[in-house]
Amino acid sequence: MAEAQNIPAGATAGGAVAVAAESTVATRMSAPPSFDVADFPVPHGREEEWRFTPLERLKGLHDGTAKADGAVKAQVDAPEGVTVESVTRDDERVGKAGTPVDRIAAQAYSSFEKATVITVPKESVLTEPVRVLLHGEGGTTFGHTVFDIGAFAEAVIVVDHTGDGVRAANVDFLIGDGAKVTFVSVQDWDDTAVHCSQHNAKLGRDATFKSVVVTFGGDLVRLHPRVEYTGPGGDAELLGLYFTDAGQHQEHRLLVDHNVPNCKSNVVYKGALQGEQAHAVWIGDVLIEAAAEGTDTYEMNRNLVLTDGARVDSVPNLEIETGEIVGAGHASATGRFDDEQLFYLMARGIPQIEARRLVVRGFFAELVQQIGVKDIEERLIAKIEEELEASV
Asked: Where is the SUF system FeS cluster assembly SufBD core domain (predicted)?
């Protein structure tokens, strides 16, 4: 287990962070960000950003052989006052939140026909979530969605993925000054689906963004949440929950770019794995640029391995280019059931199977309770129970 590191202003923790003149996050990429797929070489699996990903299971998304021959049934349920538009890629809002950082994201950008822009007007306080339901009906599809959140607006957004198919997409968040946004992304695909997506969030001054990524389904899921700030006072919380079954590959690669002063971020991802060749990958990059004095950040990844044959790769990366920060730290831990917890429960008359279930429920409960959408929380609890039936 990597112990948490809390670093006061002007200090470093031995081996935990590096003060660098230029970003090692950028140098780990095989090519700089670009909207043009031709700017990215076809990956061969030895690149840093691809070394954990089974390229042969991407169904051609990575090498240009995947063609848009599928269908996704899309439904948007938006409260009164929220507008939904279908636009072309030359709309000024498309791509404004972030640039593709790998070949698949660039392929998605160059291949979609129309982007969906969902706008929450400034100072609007939504009492019901904006829900985007995407149901794959087979084949390969590409997509781009922009959520344009006006200044001082408050919104909860749920994007729910079900069905089958091969999907590559970009999801953008333009979050105005003082706005508060909760984003819940659910990956509940069929077992044969492939899903790759880059999430870009650009936060205005004093804006708050909470992302909750929940991944259960799919043969291969590879998600790329990214956050940057446009003014001081921004606060980003990135939460994630995944349950990886036999043969599944679930990969979450995050970047929080602290590029302006006096912003906060907190990253907590938790996963459980069971079955032969269940593989979870978590890469957590936090960059504190030279200009980002007063930053306060922390990231943590915890994994619970329920059976033999499962594999976890957990890589937290913290890079600091200024010593004038409030605090920065990271932690990563992977292990099996806590024998002391099981003994405590069994000593009080709880059967071993039920005790194991209680431990897993407790492991995930903290994150589930922070979603804030009751029907989603209930559905995820039921899904966890379903997964536990298979493992215990």
From this structure: 135-363
